[in-house]
Amino acid sequence: MSTLQKVALLGRGSLGSIVLDELLRARFTVTVLTRSDSTSTAATLPVGITLKQVDYSSLESLQSALQGHDIVISTLTPAAIPLQKLIIDASIAVGVTRFIPADYGAICSDPSGAAQKLPCHAPAVAIQNYLRERDTQIEHTIFAVGALLERIFTLPVAVDLAHRAVRLYDGGVHAFSVSRTSTVAKAVVGALQKLEETRNRVVRVHDAVLTQRRVYNLARKWTAGEQWTETNVDAEEQLARTMAMLQKNPDPALLPAMFLAAFFSGKFGAEYRDQDLDNELLGLGLLSDEEVERLGLELTTGLV
């Protein structure tokens, strides 16, 4: 068990809720920070959790809320990622030992460094760099987890099940890592029990490796006899086109298209190599092909 046991958790989305459950199972003492009314939020929390209302734009408010905590875990939404700079400053000021940013990316920790230059990753990379510049003042752990398995099967990412349509990037042949949300939560808590081994570095985990073609083949199997609309996309060409459009008009609405072209291109480290994985360190297993198919079918109930 870690000697650092007082945790402040920021963010109450699906990942934050599952991380909270894992922290409680591991017997950490947890304070949940929230911007919302504490009375209504408290009713949704497990018994014994401390709740503090905080102003994320106020250094004084953050310092008061974080005082006495060893670890800060952020699961804030992508839109709130820039707010973490002030939270890091407050954490340093009150002596927090380790900060885990809301990153949990698929390719924004690409070992080659190429993906970090993409505009869609700018906010997350800025926080990564901010932490690295302060690693003598506060430790950090950054998580690379691949695409979330739940999103791959339920959102129009790899395939659009709801409309029986697919945009195949380069024929859908490039491999990518995926993790369940529960695996991400277990990895976060596992890293807190391996403090020295996970200090000031990227922790890389996944449940399985898929291709877009594999997901598409499963979707067609589950919708046997139905007509699908296929569109072939040159990933590199799509990425270049989107980059050019962003240079002319920095419209955030273009960023998802940029990410998909990069993610499915096979050029930005989307498939994690076995030798780089930290699954064994954190006591995490892998999913078999059969388990991935079963989970995918369960997730898509109502869509197939």
TrEMBL record:
The lineage of its organism: Eukaryota, Fungi, Dikarya, Ascomycota, Pezizomycotina. This is NAD(P)-binding protein. It comes from Aspergillus homomorphus (strain CBS 101889). InterPro entries: NAD(P)-bd_dom_sf (IPR036291), NmrA-like (IPR008030), NmrA/Isoflavone_reductase-like (IPR051609), PCBER-like (IPR045312). Keywords: NADP, Oxidoreductase. One of its GO terms (molecular function) is oxidoreductase activity. The keyword Translocase does not apply. PANTHER family: CIPA-LIKE, PUTATIVE (AFU_ORTHOLOGUE AFUA_1G12460)-RELATED (PTHR47706:SF1), NMRA-LIKE FAMILY PROTEIN (PTHR47706). It comes from the Eukaryota. CDD domains: PCBER_SDR_a (cd05259). The keyword NADP applies. Residues 12-239 form the NmrA-like domain.
